[in-house]
Design brief:
Helix content is 33%, strand content 19%. The chain is an alpha+beta fold and 465 residues long. The chain folds into 3 domains: 6-152, Adenine-n6-DNA-methyltransferase TaqI, Chain A, domain 2 (Alpha-Beta Complex); 154-201 and 368-465, Orthogonal Bundle (Helix Hairpins), CATH 1.10.287.1120; 216-365, Alpha-Beta Complex (Adenine-n6-DNA-methyltransferase TaqI, Chain A, domain 2), CATH 3.90.220. Strand 4 and strand 5 (45-46) form a beta hairpin. The longest helix is centred in the middle third of the chain and has 42 residues, at 155-196. The chain starts with 5 loop residues before the first strand and ends in a 36-residue tail after the last helix.
Length: 465
Amino acid sequence: MPADWRVGRFDSLFDVQQGRQVSKKNRIGDNHRPFLRTKNVFWNRLDLSDLDEMHFSEADESRLALKPDDLLICEGGDIGRTAIWRGVISRCYYQNHLHRARIRASEAADAQFVLFWLWYAFEFGNLYFGRGNVTTIPNLSQSKLCELPLAIPPLAEQQKIAGVLGLVQRAIEQQERLIALTAELKKGLLHKLFTEGLRGEPQKQTEIGPVPESWEVVQLGECCDIVSGSLSYTDFIKMGSSDAVDALACMGVKVSDMNLPGNESRFVTSNLTKRLSVDVARRKLVPPNTVVFPKRGAAIATNKKRLTTTWTVLDPNLIGLSAKDSLDEEFLFHWSQTFDLRKITDPGPTPQLNKKDLVPILIPLPKDIDEQQEIAAAISCVDNKMTCHQRTHATLTDLFRTLLHQLMTAQIRVHDLDLDEILQRSVAESGDATVNPPIVGNGRDRSLRGNRAHNRPVQDRGNES
Protein backbone atom coordinates (compact mmCIF):
# COMPACT_ATOMS: atom_id res chain seq x y z
CA MET A 1 0.00 0.00 0.00
CA PRO A 2 1.36 3.47 -0.83
CA ALA A 3 2.77 5.42 2.10
CA ASP A 4 0.14 8.15 1.79
CA TRP A 5 -2.78 5.66 1.90
CA ARG A 6 -4.23 4.43 5.15
CA VAL A 7 -6.74 1.79 6.29
CA GLY A 8 -9.77 2.66 8.38
CA ARG A 9 -13.03 1.11 9.50
CA PHE A 10 -16.11 1.92 7.49
CA ASP A 11 -17.79 3.62 10.44
CA SER A 12 -14.79 5.92 10.93
CA LEU A 13 -15.89 7.63 7.70
CA PHE A 14 -19.63 6.97 7.58
CA ASP A 15 -22.67 7.15 9.80
CA VAL A 16 -24.72 4.03 9.11
CA GLN A 17 -28.46 3.58 9.54
CA GLN A 18 -31.01 0.99 8.39
CA GLY A 19 -34.44 1.85 7.04
CA ARG A 20 -38.04 1.12 7.98
CA GLN A 21 -39.35 -2.43 8.17
CA VAL A 22 -41.84 -3.44 5.48
CA SER A 23 -44.92 -4.92 7.12
CA LYS A 24 -48.71 -4.82 6.91
CA LYS A 25 -48.79 -2.73 10.07
CA ASN A 26 -46.40 -0.13 8.65
CA ARG A 27 -48.48 0.24 5.51
CA ILE A 28 -51.46 1.50 7.53
CA GLY A 29 -51.74 5.28 7.56
CA ASP A 30 -52.50 8.28 5.37
CA ASN A 31 -48.95 9.50 4.72
CA HIS A 32 -47.83 7.05 2.05
CA ARG A 33 -44.42 7.82 0.58
CA PRO A 34 -42.19 5.99 -1.93
CA PHE A 35 -39.32 3.93 -0.57
CA LEU A 36 -36.35 2.03 -1.94
CA ARG A 37 -35.98 -1.74 -1.67
CA THR A 38 -32.99 -3.91 -2.51
CA LYS A 39 -34.48 -4.57 -5.95
CA ASN A 40 -34.10 -0.85 -6.73
CA VAL A 41 -30.38 -0.82 -5.92
CA PHE A 42 -27.79 -1.89 -8.48
CA TRP A 43 -24.08 -1.25 -8.64
CA ASN A 44 -23.67 2.49 -9.22
CA ARG A 45 -27.29 3.07 -10.22
CA LEU A 46 -30.80 3.18 -8.83
CA ASP A 47 -33.89 1.97 -10.69
CA LEU A 48 -36.63 4.42 -9.68
CA SER A 49 -39.18 3.15 -12.20
CA ASP A 50 -40.92 0.78 -9.77
CA LEU A 51 -41.09 2.20 -6.24
CA ASP A 52 -43.26 0.73 -3.51
CA GLU A 53 -45.03 2.91 -0.94
CA MET A 54 -45.91 2.69 2.73
CA HIS A 55 -46.86 5.00 5.60
CA PHE A 56 -44.11 7.14 7.13
CA SER A 57 -44.77 9.20 10.26
CA GLU A 58 -43.29 12.67 10.64
CA ALA A 59 -40.61 11.18 12.91
CA ASP A 60 -39.84 8.47 10.30
CA GLU A 61 -39.48 11.08 7.59
CA SER A 62 -37.07 13.10 9.70
CA ARG A 63 -34.99 10.04 10.64
CA LEU A 64 -34.94 8.44 7.18
CA ALA A 65 -34.53 11.53 5.01
CA LEU A 66 -31.97 10.95 2.26
CA LYS A 67 -29.35 13.51 1.24
CA PRO A 68 -27.32 13.70 -1.98
CA ASP A 69 -24.18 11.53 -1.83
CA ASP A 70 -25.73 9.12 0.68
CA LEU A 71 -24.71 5.54 -0.10
CA LEU A 72 -27.44 2.87 -0.18
CA ILE A 73 -25.97 -0.55 0.53
CA CYS A 74 -27.80 -3.88 0.27
CA GLU A 75 -28.02 -5.80 3.53
CA GLY A 76 -29.44 -8.92 1.88
CA GLY A 77 -29.53 -10.58 -1.54
CA ASP A 78 -26.44 -9.43 -3.41
CA ILE A 79 -24.87 -8.17 -0.20
CA GLY A 80 -22.79 -5.01 -0.45
CA ARG A 81 -24.33 -3.85 -3.73
CA THR A 82 -24.22 -0.07 -3.57
CA ALA A 83 -25.66 2.98 -5.30
CA ILE A 84 -25.54 6.71 -4.57
CA TRP A 85 -28.60 8.81 -3.84
CA ARG A 86 -28.63 11.83 -6.17
CA GLY A 87 -31.79 13.50 -4.89
CA VAL A 88 -33.75 12.84 -8.09
CA ILE A 89 -37.11 12.72 -6.28
CA SER A 90 -38.15 14.30 -3.00
CA ARG A 91 -39.40 12.58 0.15
CA CYS A 92 -38.22 9.12 -0.83
CA TYR A 93 -37.07 6.77 1.93
CA TYR A 94 -35.68 3.25 2.30
CA GLN A 95 -36.54 -0.11 3.82
CA ASN A 96 -34.68 -1.98 6.56
CA HIS A 97 -32.82 -4.27 4.13
CA LEU A 98 -30.84 -1.24 3.00
CA HIS A 99 -28.13 0.59 4.90
CA ARG A 100 -27.87 4.34 4.46
CA ALA A 101 -24.23 5.43 4.82
CA ARG A 102 -23.57 9.17 5.15
CA ILE A 103 -20.08 10.70 5.12
CA ARG A 104 -19.18 12.12 8.52
CA ALA A 105 -16.66 14.69 7.21
CA SER A 106 -16.55 15.79 3.58
CA GLU A 107 -12.79 16.34 3.75
CA ALA A 108 -12.20 12.69 4.65
CA ALA A 109 -13.90 10.65 1.91
CA ASP A 110 -15.49 10.84 -1.52
CA ALA A 111 -18.76 8.88 -1.78
CA GLN A 112 -18.19 7.83 -5.39
CA PHE A 113 -14.71 6.52 -4.59
CA VAL A 114 -16.05 4.47 -1.67
CA LEU A 115 -18.77 3.02 -3.92
CA PHE A 116 -16.11 1.89 -6.41
CA TRP A 117 -14.01 0.50 -3.54
CA LEU A 118 -16.97 -1.56 -2.29
CA TRP A 119 -17.65 -2.73 -5.86
CA TYR A 120 -14.06 -3.93 -6.16
CA ALA A 121 -13.95 -5.47 -2.67
CA PHE A 122 -17.26 -7.37 -2.93
CA GLU A 123 -17.38 -8.30 -6.63
CA PHE A 124 -13.80 -8.67 -7.84
CA GLY A 125 -11.24 -8.66 -5.06
CA ASN A 126 -13.20 -10.94 -2.68
CA LEU A 127 -11.75 -8.87 0.15
CA TYR A 128 -14.88 -9.19 2.24
CA PHE A 129 -15.54 -12.88 1.63
CA GLY A 130 -17.15 -14.30 4.76
CA ARG A 131 -17.86 -10.87 6.23
CA GLY A 132 -21.60 -11.32 5.88
CA ASN A 133 -23.62 -13.21 8.48
CA VAL A 134 -23.91 -16.83 7.34
CA THR A 135 -27.49 -18.00 7.85
CA THR A 136 -30.08 -19.56 5.59
CA ILE A 137 -30.16 -16.11 3.91
CA PRO A 138 -26.75 -14.37 3.78
CA ASN A 139 -26.88 -10.78 5.04
CA LEU A 140 -24.60 -7.87 5.86
CA SER A 141 -25.63 -6.59 9.28
CA GLN A 142 -25.05 -3.03 10.37
CA SER A 143 -22.32 -4.13 12.79
CA LYS A 144 -20.56 -6.15 10.07
CA LEU A 145 -20.73 -3.22 7.65
CA CYS A 146 -19.35 -0.81 10.23
CA GLU A 147 -16.25 -2.90 10.85
CA LEU A 148 -15.30 -3.39 7.18
CA PRO A 149 -11.77 -2.08 6.47
CA LEU A 150 -11.41 0.50 3.70
CA ALA A 151 -8.34 1.64 1.79
CA ILE A 152 -8.28 5.44 2.14
CA PRO A 153 -6.09 7.43 -0.25
CA PRO A 154 -5.80 11.21 0.13
CA LEU A 155 -9.10 12.91 -0.81
CA ALA A 156 -7.73 14.43 -4.02
CA GLU A 157 -6.61 11.00 -5.22
CA GLN A 158 -9.97 9.47 -4.24
CA GLN A 159 -11.73 12.06 -6.38
CA LYS A 160 -9.44 11.50 -9.36
CA ILE A 161 -9.88 7.71 -9.16
CA ALA A 162 -13.65 8.14 -8.95
CA GLY A 163 -13.54 10.53 -11.92
CA VAL A 164 -11.60 8.11 -14.13
CA LEU A 165 -13.79 5.11 -13.30
CA GLY A 166 -16.92 7.25 -13.64
CA LEU A 167 -15.94 8.30 -17.16
CA VAL A 168 -15.52 4.67 -18.23
CA GLN A 169 -18.85 3.79 -16.61
CA ARG A 170 -20.62 6.59 -18.49
CA ALA A 171 -19.08 5.35 -21.73
CA ILE A 172 -20.42 1.85 -20.95
CA GLU A 173 -23.87 3.26 -20.18
CA GLN A 174 -23.85 5.17 -23.45
CA GLN A 175 -23.16 1.97 -25.37
CA GLU A 176 -26.03 0.27 -23.50
CA ARG A 177 -28.37 3.05 -24.62
CA LEU A 178 -27.12 2.75 -28.21
CA ILE A 179 -27.60 -1.03 -28.14
CA ALA A 180 -31.19 -0.59 -26.91
CA LEU A 181 -31.92 2.06 -29.56
CA THR A 182 -30.39 -0.08 -32.31
CA ALA A 183 -32.51 -3.05 -31.23
CA GLU A 184 -35.65 -0.91 -31.49
CA LEU A 185 -34.55 0.37 -34.89
CA LYS A 186 -34.04 -3.17 -36.15
CA LYS A 187 -37.42 -4.32 -34.82
CA GLY A 188 -39.18 -1.55 -36.74
CA LEU A 189 -37.08 -2.11 -39.86
CA LEU A 190 -37.84 -5.85 -39.95
CA HIS A 191 -41.58 -5.18 -39.78
CA LYS A 192 -41.46 -2.48 -42.46
CA LEU A 193 -39.27 -4.37 -44.93
CA PHE A 194 -41.13 -7.69 -44.67
CA THR A 195 -44.53 -6.02 -45.13
CA GLU A 196 -43.72 -3.16 -47.53
CA GLY A 197 -40.48 -4.17 -49.26
CA LEU A 198 -38.12 -1.57 -50.70
CA ARG A 199 -39.71 -0.64 -54.00
CA GLY A 200 -42.81 1.24 -52.94
CA GLU A 201 -45.29 -1.06 -54.67
CA PRO A 202 -48.92 -1.51 -53.56
CA GLN A 203 -49.67 -4.14 -50.90
CA LYS A 204 -52.02 -7.10 -50.91
CA GLN A 205 -53.60 -8.93 -48.00
CA THR A 206 -52.43 -12.51 -47.36
CA GLU A 207 -52.71 -15.19 -44.68
CA ILE A 208 -49.80 -13.53 -42.85
CA GLY A 209 -50.91 -9.94 -43.35
CA PRO A 210 -50.01 -7.28 -45.93
CA VAL A 211 -47.09 -7.88 -48.31
CA PRO A 212 -46.02 -6.18 -51.58
CA GLU A 213 -48.24 -7.10 -54.52
CA SER A 214 -45.51 -8.91 -56.50
CA TRP A 215 -44.39 -11.08 -53.58
CA GLU A 216 -45.41 -14.67 -52.95
CA VAL A 217 -46.28 -16.31 -49.66
CA VAL A 218 -44.86 -19.83 -49.62
CA GLN A 219 -44.30 -22.60 -47.11
CA LEU A 220 -40.83 -22.84 -45.63
CA GLY A 221 -40.58 -26.41 -46.88
CA GLU A 222 -40.86 -25.18 -50.50
CA CYS A 223 -37.87 -22.84 -50.34
CA CYS A 224 -35.69 -24.47 -47.65
CA ASP A 225 -34.23 -27.80 -46.69
CA ILE A 226 -34.64 -28.73 -43.02
CA VAL A 227 -31.18 -30.06 -42.12
CA SER A 228 -29.29 -31.56 -39.20
CA GLY A 229 -26.46 -33.39 -41.02
CA SER A 230 -25.64 -37.10 -41.01
CA LEU A 231 -22.45 -36.91 -38.93
CA SER A 232 -23.15 -36.95 -35.20
CA TYR A 233 -21.41 -34.54 -32.86
CA THR A 234 -20.06 -37.52 -30.87
CA ASP A 235 -18.52 -39.08 -33.98
CA PHE A 236 -17.05 -35.71 -34.99
CA ILE A 237 -15.26 -35.55 -31.63
CA LYS A 238 -13.68 -38.96 -32.29
CA MET A 239 -12.55 -38.17 -35.83
CA GLY A 240 -9.06 -37.03 -36.63
CA SER A 241 -8.25 -33.97 -38.71
CA SER A 242 -7.42 -34.41 -42.37
CA ASP A 243 -4.02 -33.18 -43.55
CA ALA A 244 -5.11 -33.05 -47.21
CA VAL A 245 -4.21 -29.83 -49.00
CA ASP A 246 -7.83 -29.19 -49.96
CA ALA A 247 -9.29 -30.19 -46.56
CA LEU A 248 -11.96 -27.81 -45.25
CA ALA A 249 -12.00 -26.17 -41.82
CA CYS A 250 -15.19 -27.46 -40.15
CA MET A 251 -16.93 -26.66 -36.88
CA GLY A 252 -18.89 -28.70 -34.39
CA VAL A 253 -21.43 -26.51 -32.61
CA LYS A 254 -23.63 -26.92 -29.56
CA VAL A 255 -26.27 -24.64 -28.08
CA SER A 256 -23.64 -23.20 -25.72
CA ASP A 257 -21.52 -22.10 -28.71
CA MET A 258 -24.24 -19.59 -29.56
CA ASN A 259 -23.11 -17.60 -26.52
CA LEU A 260 -19.40 -17.43 -27.32
CA PRO A 261 -17.99 -13.92 -27.88
CA GLY A 262 -18.25 -13.04 -31.57
CA ASN A 263 -21.11 -15.48 -32.19
CA GLU A 264 -23.88 -12.93 -31.66
CA SER A 265 -25.27 -13.55 -35.17
CA ARG A 266 -22.92 -16.02 -36.89
CA PHE A 267 -20.82 -18.97 -35.79
CA VAL A 268 -17.39 -17.46 -36.25
CA THR A 269 -15.89 -19.67 -33.55
CA SER A 270 -16.69 -22.85 -31.63
CA ASN A 271 -15.15 -25.11 -29.02
CA LEU A 272 -14.64 -27.90 -31.57
CA THR A 273 -12.98 -27.43 -34.97
CA LYS A 274 -11.34 -29.92 -37.34
CA ARG A 275 -10.27 -30.19 -40.95
CA LEU A 276 -12.23 -32.70 -43.02
CA SER A 277 -12.03 -33.80 -46.63
CA VAL A 278 -14.25 -31.97 -49.09
CA ASP A 279 -16.19 -35.17 -49.80
CA VAL A 280 -16.99 -35.88 -46.14
CA ALA A 281 -17.93 -32.28 -45.42
CA ARG A 282 -20.34 -32.01 -48.33
CA ARG A 283 -21.98 -35.38 -47.72
CA LYS A 284 -22.35 -35.32 -43.96
CA LEU A 285 -22.29 -31.74 -42.64
CA VAL A 286 -24.67 -28.82 -42.96
CA PRO A 287 -23.43 -26.16 -45.40
CA PRO A 288 -22.29 -22.60 -44.79
CA ASN A 289 -25.07 -19.99 -44.53
CA THR A 290 -27.46 -22.39 -42.80
CA VAL A 291 -29.79 -20.78 -40.23
CA VAL A 292 -29.36 -22.75 -36.99
CA PHE A 293 -31.49 -22.68 -33.84
CA PRO A 294 -32.31 -24.89 -30.81
CA LYS A 295 -34.84 -27.65 -31.35
CA ARG A 296 -35.07 -29.23 -27.90
CA GLY A 297 -35.30 -28.15 -24.26
CA ALA A 298 -35.30 -24.81 -22.50
CA ALA A 299 -32.91 -23.31 -25.07
CA ILE A 300 -35.86 -22.94 -27.48
CA ALA A 301 -37.17 -20.15 -25.24
CA THR A 302 -34.04 -18.08 -25.93
CA ASN A 303 -35.28 -17.76 -29.54
CA LYS A 304 -31.69 -17.50 -30.78
CA LYS A 305 -30.78 -18.05 -34.40
CA ARG A 306 -27.26 -18.18 -35.84
CA LEU A 307 -25.85 -18.45 -39.35
CA THR A 308 -23.11 -20.99 -40.08
CA THR A 309 -19.94 -19.69 -41.74
CA THR A 310 -18.43 -23.03 -42.77
CA TRP A 311 -19.36 -26.70 -43.05
CA THR A 312 -20.77 -27.55 -39.63
CA VAL A 313 -21.72 -30.49 -37.42
CA LEU A 314 -24.80 -29.82 -35.28
CA ASP A 315 -25.26 -31.44 -31.91
CA PRO A 316 -28.63 -33.25 -31.39
CA ASN A 317 -30.25 -30.18 -29.80
CA LEU A 318 -29.87 -28.02 -32.93
CA ILE A 319 -31.60 -27.94 -36.31
CA GLY A 320 -31.04 -25.84 -39.43
CA LEU A 321 -32.69 -24.21 -42.44
CA SER A 322 -30.70 -24.31 -45.67
CA ALA A 323 -32.02 -22.03 -48.42
CA LYS A 324 -32.77 -23.40 -51.87
CA ASP A 325 -31.80 -21.53 -55.05
CA SER A 326 -34.89 -19.30 -55.05
CA LEU A 327 -34.08 -17.88 -51.61
CA ASP A 328 -31.17 -15.70 -50.49
CA GLU A 329 -29.57 -17.09 -47.32
CA GLU A 330 -29.19 -13.67 -45.66
CA PHE A 331 -32.83 -12.84 -46.42
CA LEU A 332 -33.85 -16.13 -44.80
CA PHE A 333 -31.68 -15.43 -41.75
CA HIS A 334 -33.14 -11.96 -41.18
CA TRP A 335 -36.70 -13.16 -41.76
CA SER A 336 -36.16 -15.99 -39.24
CA GLN A 337 -35.68 -13.36 -36.54
CA THR A 338 -39.29 -12.23 -36.97
CA PHE A 339 -40.86 -15.43 -35.65
CA ASP A 340 -40.81 -16.83 -32.12
CA LEU A 341 -39.68 -20.45 -31.83
CA ARG A 342 -41.86 -20.94 -28.75
CA LYS A 343 -45.02 -20.47 -30.82
CA ILE A 344 -44.30 -23.49 -33.02
CA THR A 345 -42.99 -25.82 -30.30
CA ASP A 346 -44.63 -29.15 -29.51
CA PRO A 347 -46.20 -29.01 -26.05
CA GLY A 348 -44.97 -31.42 -23.42
CA PRO A 349 -42.60 -31.69 -20.47
CA THR A 350 -39.62 -31.20 -22.82
CA PRO A 351 -40.18 -28.50 -25.48
CA GLN A 352 -39.30 -29.77 -28.93
CA LEU A 353 -39.23 -28.61 -32.56
CA ASN A 354 -39.39 -31.05 -35.47
CA LYS A 355 -39.40 -30.85 -39.25
CA LYS A 356 -43.20 -31.10 -39.31
CA ASP A 357 -43.38 -27.90 -37.21
CA LEU A 358 -41.14 -25.96 -39.59
CA VAL A 359 -42.26 -27.07 -43.05
CA PRO A 360 -45.71 -25.37 -43.05
CA ILE A 361 -44.51 -21.99 -41.74
CA LEU A 362 -45.33 -19.25 -44.25
CA ILE A 363 -42.63 -16.86 -45.45
CA PRO A 364 -43.16 -13.67 -47.53
CA LEU A 365 -40.89 -13.96 -50.55
CA PRO A 366 -39.93 -11.45 -53.26
CA LYS A 367 -39.76 -13.24 -56.63
CA ASP A 368 -36.71 -11.17 -57.57
CA ILE A 369 -33.67 -12.45 -55.67
CA ASP A 370 -32.02 -9.04 -56.17
CA GLU A 371 -34.74 -7.50 -54.01
CA GLN A 372 -34.18 -10.20 -51.39
CA GLN A 373 -30.50 -9.28 -51.33
CA GLU A 374 -31.23 -5.55 -51.10
CA ILE A 375 -33.52 -6.13 -48.11
CA ALA A 376 -30.92 -8.38 -46.47
CA ALA A 377 -28.21 -5.76 -47.03
CA ALA A 378 -30.31 -3.03 -45.41
CA ILE A 379 -30.89 -5.15 -42.30
CA SER A 380 -27.25 -6.22 -42.21
CA CYS A 381 -26.24 -2.57 -41.93
CA VAL A 382 -28.19 -2.34 -38.67
CA ASP A 383 -26.75 -5.67 -37.51
CA ASN A 384 -23.24 -4.39 -38.18
CA LYS A 385 -23.99 -1.30 -36.13
CA MET A 386 -25.29 -3.47 -33.29
CA THR A 387 -22.17 -5.68 -33.41
CA CYS A 388 -20.04 -2.56 -33.29
CA HIS A 389 -21.79 -1.31 -30.14
CA GLN A 390 -21.71 -4.74 -28.48
CA ARG A 391 -17.98 -5.12 -29.05
CA THR A 392 -17.30 -1.63 -27.77
CA HIS A 393 -19.43 -2.33 -24.71
CA ALA A 394 -17.53 -5.56 -24.00
CA THR A 395 -14.17 -3.81 -24.44
CA LEU A 396 -15.14 -0.95 -22.13
CA THR A 397 -16.47 -3.39 -19.52
CA ASP A 398 -13.16 -5.27 -19.54
CA LEU A 399 -11.32 -1.96 -19.29
CA PHE A 400 -13.41 -0.88 -16.31
CA ARG A 401 -12.72 -4.13 -14.44
CA THR A 402 -8.98 -3.86 -15.14
CA LEU A 403 -8.80 -0.23 -14.05
CA LEU A 404 -10.92 -0.92 -10.97
CA HIS A 405 -8.52 -3.66 -9.85
CA GLN A 406 -5.34 -1.79 -10.65
CA LEU A 407 -6.40 1.55 -9.16
CA MET A 408 -7.81 0.05 -5.96
CA THR A 409 -4.66 -2.01 -5.39
CA ALA A 410 -2.36 0.89 -6.42
CA GLN A 411 -0.77 -1.23 -9.16
CA ILE A 412 -1.15 1.95 -11.18
CA ARG A 413 -1.53 5.44 -9.75
CA VAL A 414 -4.17 7.71 -11.16
CA HIS A 415 -1.74 10.59 -11.75
CA ASP A 416 0.26 8.29 -14.08
CA LEU A 417 -2.80 7.33 -16.10
CA ASP A 418 -3.52 8.57 -19.64
CA LEU A 419 -7.15 7.47 -19.99
CA ASP A 420 -7.57 9.03 -23.44
CA GLU A 421 -4.78 6.87 -24.81
CA ILE A 422 -5.99 3.73 -22.99
CA LEU A 423 -9.55 4.15 -24.27
CA GLN A 424 -8.44 4.79 -27.82
CA ARG A 425 -6.20 1.72 -27.81
CA SER A 426 -8.77 -0.56 -26.18
CA VAL A 427 -11.60 0.46 -28.47
CA ALA A 428 -9.38 0.25 -31.56
CA GLU A 429 -8.61 -3.35 -30.58
CA SER A 430 -12.35 -4.05 -30.46
CA GLY A 431 -12.55 -3.22 -34.17
CA ASP A 432 -14.20 0.21 -33.89
CA ALA A 433 -11.35 2.60 -34.50
CA THR A 434 -13.56 5.69 -34.83
CA VAL A 435 -14.83 5.68 -31.24
CA ASN A 436 -14.03 8.88 -29.38
CA PRO A 437 -13.35 8.38 -25.66
CA PRO A 438 -14.51 10.75 -22.93
CA ILE A 439 -12.10 13.66 -22.50
CA VAL A 440 -10.42 13.38 -19.11
CA GLY A 441 -8.86 16.80 -18.98
CA ASN A 442 -11.99 18.96 -19.03
CA GLY A 443 -14.55 16.39 -17.84
CA ARG A 444 -16.65 16.51 -21.01
CA ASP A 445 -18.03 13.18 -22.21
CA ARG A 446 -17.46 13.01 -25.96
CA SER A 447 -19.74 10.70 -27.93
CA LEU A 448 -18.66 7.12 -28.55
CA ARG A 449 -19.50 6.80 -32.23
CA GLY A 450 -19.13 3.57 -34.19
CA ASN A 451 -18.75 3.16 -37.93
CA ARG A 452 -20.23 0.45 -40.01
CA ALA A 453 -18.41 -2.82 -39.35
CA HIS A 454 -16.77 -4.56 -42.29
CA ASN A 455 -19.08 -7.08 -43.93
CA ARG A 456 -17.94 -10.62 -43.46
CA PRO A 457 -17.28 -12.54 -46.69
CA VAL A 458 -20.01 -14.99 -47.60
CA GLN A 459 -18.66 -18.43 -48.34
CA ASP A 460 -19.91 -20.59 -51.18
CA ARG A 461 -22.42 -23.10 -49.95
CA GLY A 462 -21.17 -25.88 -52.19
CA ASN A 463 -23.15 -28.58 -53.93
CA GLU A 464 -24.99 -31.09 -51.80
CA SER A 465 -24.92 -34.66 -53.05
